[in-house]
Batch of 2 targets.
Target 1
Amino acid sequence: MACLAIVLGGNLAPVRAWQGDGYINREHQLKALFLYNFGHYVEWPAQAFVDAQQPFVIGLLGSSPVESTLREIAATRQIAGRGIVVKRFDSHADVTACQILFVSRAITVEHFDALIEDLRGLPVLIVGEREGFASRGGCVNFFIESNKIRFEINREEAKQHNLRMSAKLLALARIVQ
Amino acid sequence: MIFRRFVNTAAKILLACATLAGGVARGQDAPTGSLSGPAGGTSSQQTGSLNPDMNLEQLVQQDVLVPSLSQVVNTVDRQESTVGHSAAAVFVITPEMIKRSGVRSIPEALRMAPGITVAKITSSTWAISARGFNGRFANKLLVQIDRRVVYTPTFGGVFWDIQDVVLEDIERIEVIRGPGTVAWGSNAVNGVINIITKNSKDTQGALVQSGGGNYQQDFNTIRYGGRVNEDFTWNFWGKQFDRNRGWSGPEFVRDGWRQQRVGFRTDWTPTEEDSVLVQGNLYNGYDGERFDNTIPFPPFSEVENDRTHVSGGDIQFRWSRDIDEDTGWQFQTYYLVRRRHLSAWAEDRDMWDVDFQYRFSPAEYHQVIAGANYRHNQDHERGGFSFMLIPNSFLTQWASVFAEDKMTLLEDEMYFTLGCRLEYNTFGKFRAEPTARLLYLPSDRASMWAAVSRAIRNPTRFDTGIRLRTSGPAPAVFFEFLGNPNFEPESVIAYEVGYRAQPDDSFSWDIAGYINDYRKLRGLGAPGAPIFLPPVLIPIELQNNISAVSYGAELTATWQIHDDWQLFGSYSLFEINAVGGGPDQFFVDQYNGSTAHNNIYLMSSWDLSDTWRFDLIGRYMDSVSFAGVPKYIESDARLTWTASDNLEISLIGQNILNPHHLEYTDFELGLYDTQVRRGVYGMITWTH
């Protein structure tokens, strides 16, 4: 068991110590786990999927260290009985159908508006990690507070995308307009 | 329990006192500004590991930054583990520490590691060792970059001037004090340093760095990383620097130096189980220096102002397969070329190394790792009257096998490791290097360990074939120090203990102690009958006639005083008593006096705001009697402004307390030492 923990830990936490002497920064590993978890706490409308076989797609816009952890999760886990596929989009123009779209820090604020506009009304949970992302039209936005990953939710935007968020998810979030 | 509380408190007080005494002002750390302490909580010993089945409530409780006990290391026994799970004196230098310390080279970064003595001889020459036996040609420390051995087998030590990578691309530097011979082979007698660079998937995009100052005259780094697809990433890089000469008063020794280096790295993950690494680099540079060279005619010694031309390259291939959590293998091979040319001596060599390791679990509670290594080093030496190696062309080969079993005695509580390496080298027979290590985890916030190991330092070309002539008791009379073809391996039996704990979220500390019993250390035999050529030569042969006992301890602590302020400190103690040797006590005196007994390092990392950071370092190094170096206190400081996500501007002061200070001298080959000058430089880093 201990060995398993070591190996799992190793795989899920490729060391990315960039902050704090003698500390490991698990920000990206945790964010990947959050993204996977959102799949369980958000309900997508039926039209989000063509059929029961269609996988659950998590899209990543812009390069992010979240990707490697997310791929490991996708390889062994499911969301609502669907296999998970991780798709990486280099730019806004490449974005194709997905249920969750994670907009990495690499994407700068200037690109937000066009992106939000393009996805308006589509059943996609748009998640970001830059200050003000939720109030600029994102559904969910990560931030760090007291060494914990926290997230804010823009309920109006989520409704626009026909997404139903569970009470538990909303209870843990900071709600923004 | 009371004891533990006592030691925790004591350690805290020690660190606080040391901080005040060192005059380190308030500083701090943690760039995102909102990060406080470490983790813990419900997870197992592996606070660094994450369970993918955690639900949202659990996730929001997880700490982003978790403390050092869960820092991943794999130098201890070639398998991924954590500091807290290591039965060895492990220390990890993180990229953050490298960045915030403002260092520009690997030797400077190693000053942060406890138990490692770093002393500069000239602008481009260092004496670096673990747990004693320091010197320009210190030979009991194994240094690797991405598992490539970088020491020079000719003398078993490291030419530090040519060890370089893009500092921003270092993932971590693992420093292990004490024998690491089971995992890494002979030479890892007193320690192993493993410099690990980042996977190219983590160095995507562009990095441009440029800077300069009075000592760091100018330096530039460019790196660009891209991808063929998700499973195949690459980067290439180039860097260059010019460093000024040290201080030498009116003597004006020109020991400035410059170097250029280019490299690439590709990482390919063809399947989920496999990963393939190919990387390489080429370098070229010149080191200025001045030394006394012995000549056979009057005045019998002359001063040489020289420039060493260094060049070379490495190419490395590694294929790893991880079949499941207990099973996997790794194959690695690399080839390197090294050239070092100065007027009195020149060396060309090439080395080829093949390494295979296999890990598996033959039975419940047993995790075994085993492997084999072959190394082939062909050198071509050119010497002269003063110094040469006999014969001047030589092939050295090494072959070894090792196995190690980590046994779980009590799940998540007690582990026992037994391992052994059998090694053959051209100069010796098969030698066994065993180790036994016990690890006990009294809680998920503490670990204690003890180890007994036997390690050897294999004979080198210096030991077996050196011919060094220095001026003798009268004009035209020379001592001739000669290698010994029957030189035997030096050996040590090392007894080590350690304890590390993280009593609360903001504080962690680590202490390690050791007693090392050395046998058959290199010494000088009795002078032989003079040879009248002329000149007159008095031969003195190297012999294995010294034994020594050393002991010491290293204490480190990290204290997150506030969200924005972190302190790190370390203290190292070293004592030794070497006896034996012939009438000439050179080596006995050297072993007894070449390493500082006390060494303190303190670092304060302070986030002034979201965009401004201030770091301050204080260093104390005890006197080094054999090298004639007085004790000194020095300080480094760094101020950084993060102008945007892509741009960072720093101003760094190095060795700011004194206009210049002496750190070390070369007592072996007559190199003119220079002193370390106060330095200031500015730097701009742009990433995209």
Target 2
Amino acid sequence: MRYLLIEDNQKLAGAIVERLQLDGHAVDHADRLDAASACMDVADYDLILLDIMLPDGDGRDFLQRQRRAEKRTPVIVITARSAVSDRISLLDLGADDYITKPFDFAELEARCRAVMRRQGGAADNQKTFEGTVLNLTTGALQFGDASTNLRNRELRLLEVFFAAPGQVFSKSHLIDRMFSFSDEASENAIEVYVARLRKRLEGSGARIETVRGLGYRMIPA
Amino acid sequence: MKQPTSIRKRLFFQLAAVAAVLSLAFVMVVRGVASQAAEGTQDDILAASATAIADSLTSEDGKVTLELPYSALSMLGTINEDRVFYRVMVQGETLTGYADLPVTRSPRRLDTPAFSTEIYRGDEVRVASVLRRVANTATGSEVVVSVAQTRSGLAAISRRITITATSVGLLFFLLATTLSLLAANSALRPLRRMTGAVTRRGPSDLRPVTAEAPKELVPLVDALNSFMGRLRSSLSRTEDLISEAAHRVRTPLATVRTQAEVTHRKLNKPEHKKAIRDMIRAIDESSRSAGQILDHAMVTFRADSLALDPLDLAALINETCDRLAPTAGLKDIALLRELPDRPVPFNGDGIMLQAALHNILDNAIKYSPEDSDITVRIASGSELRISIADQGRGFGGMDLKDLTTRYSRGANVGDVVGSGLGLTIADEVAHAHGGRLELSHSKEGQGACVSLILPYV
């Protein structure tokens, strides 16, 4: 996915860019509204992450300009406020969703997926391995004539394998990708989810193999 | 406690007191004038009668004689049934009439009648005396003619006048009192209109008062408007301050949290990872508490003067559920909605109700195990009941009443992040709408069920 991050705090912006890149996303960063407009003129983004307080204007005005110009790129506002009334006014202005600082990237990713599902721009966000198609936005898993919808954690786990087929991932790496920080996750939980994915993938061209002492990897069936 | 003084009462009593004094004066004056007039009439007739008698005095052989003209006495009969007495004295000797009738002593001037009120035979009588000099001898004799009449007729007249005057006075008083009541009310109408214009306002309406005010109230309205202006700017300064403070605190927290996530991904040793996880949890906890404290302050502020907007609760619940679905999805928790397809109308404060629902749902998500369901139902009967049931650890036998008190948390929350304000916020929102929050054990399994019960207003 290609993100445009509009945030004036350099340290936060740097951290967000690095964090999103860890999950394999492309991120452009603009620290002012005019820079953001310039970025949008030359590139198409799947999603805009917009801070409200910016040095050359209010993010809300930017949002309104976007909506008036009929630019439908989904916008998730990153706000420092958390009072309910502020949240409501943000949505009235045309934001697709908002997230309060500080935020959990797993939650941000979940919100991005939800926004893109609502926008219908999910079709091209998919990966294929050995005839098995995984839609990263909707969580739909397709092979042959069969199609199932993965639950959130199953999707997050399978996404890791689809990103690098054949690569071995350790249990602790998989835990990091699957669980948020408020969860107390054990390595047994990974085994449970791997077992579920194996069931989901039965009959497909892919399977998940246990590599003793190292972890798991996805290989052709 | 001292009762507040009422302008209406004071105005009314003052006007009524003036009316009472005027009525009383009216009665007194009418009574005085009327009885004086009646007395004057009697005096005139008595004097005419006495003069007529004196005019018929003649002298015969050096003696004073009198042919009493009966018309002189009959004219007195015009006033009522009163008894008439007369006495004619020549040089102090009674010539004719009632020898014991008291005579007006002074003044003694020729042909000028003198009057006095005397007691005769147990009755009050009015006496008119006329002094006449009759030339029967060389020196002549002084003759005093006195005519007297009892005064019961006069008393009757005076009584009648008093009754009439008193009734008229009373009528006037009642009329004046009614009018002063109306006057007091109408004088205060602009004040009431202004009070209405101010009290009907919503919680955040600090616009100047534009209700038409009479000249006398203009300074008060101006003072009120300037006060509201100051309050408005103070509130907006506070809001700016909170916004600025939130920005200054939350932005670096977001930086730290993001960097911690990046670091966590790069670290390998479990003890290092645990340290970072603990750090992230602490950040989440402080951010969550700050959010709830702000929500709580907002709810308290809005509860003071509740906005009653027409809402669709089904849409409100759907919106809140949509908002929280991604958060729930992180734990594979499904938010099941058992809502009617049609709108559920309700008059209330949408922002407060959303805060309540958000906090209840947020709590339910936090305490629910992964791979579980949270069910949101709405049931309407004589009151609306929004229930949110989870399959979590329940309330663990704790006294359900204590859970809604500020900062109190369940006995079995273990490691879950929380400030204990969530249910307090929901409880306060319910109470502001005249409803209540009910905590019970959920029907499905052993989880908790939180019901927000709202009466129709």
